[in-house]
């Protein structure tokens, strides 16, 4: 899947990201959210920049991940400016001094992943950060994954600790899984 994603043409990826932002922004989960926890995309992922900027323009609070010093754990931190980002582990960008956003304050999670199936199963990068973080949220907080259509597969293998997402937004459709 990583190889497949790296072969997407830049223009196709940009058009796909724009369509995903439009579809996500039309969801009732988006309309109901005041604090959005979104990931900072890696080069081969759907770009989240337009999504984050839309949230800011709509006066939504944005939180992004920061890896904890404790192995396998992350926290959500407030995000206001791309200029504040610094390189971190695994090629990620982070905000080292940003205030933590409590899990109880998050209204919507926009989740990354390598592959997804129509049942909402998600294949992450393999470190389990989201699988450990999501149970800390309120039960009613929706988790919406965003991905290119090429990331949809027939079935994602899962273990007992792997958590499904509530919906998947691609450039072409919204898939309701739960």
Give structural notes:
There is one protein chain. With 178 residues, this protein is α/β, with parallel strands linked by helices. It is built from 5 helices and 12 strands. The strands form 3 sheets. Strands 6-3-2-1-7-10-11-12 form an 8-stranded mixed β-sheet. A hairpin with a 5-residue loop joins strand 4 and strand 5. The two termini are 24 Å apart.
The portion of residues forming beta strands comes to: 15-25%
How far from one another are the termini? 24 Å
Beta-strand segment tally: 12
- Radius of gyration from the alpha-carbon trace, in angstroms: 15 Å
The residue fraction in helices comes out at 10-25%
Order of helices and strands: HHHEHEEEEEEEEHEEE
What is shown here, in short?
It contains 5 helices and 12 strands.
List the SSEs and their pairings.
Blueprint: H1 2-6, H2 10-25, H3 28-31, E1 35-38, H4 49-57, E2 61-67, E3 74-78, E4 86-87, E5 93-94, E6 100-101, E7 108-111, E8 115-116, E9 122-123, H5 129-133, E10 143-146, E11 167-169, E12 174-176
Parallel strand pairs: 1-2, 1-7, 7-10, 10-11
Antiparallel strand pairs: 2-3, 3-6, 4-5, 8-9, 11-12
Note the main attributes of this structure:
178 residues, alpha/beta, two-stranded antiparallel sheet, 5 helices, 12 strands, 22% strand
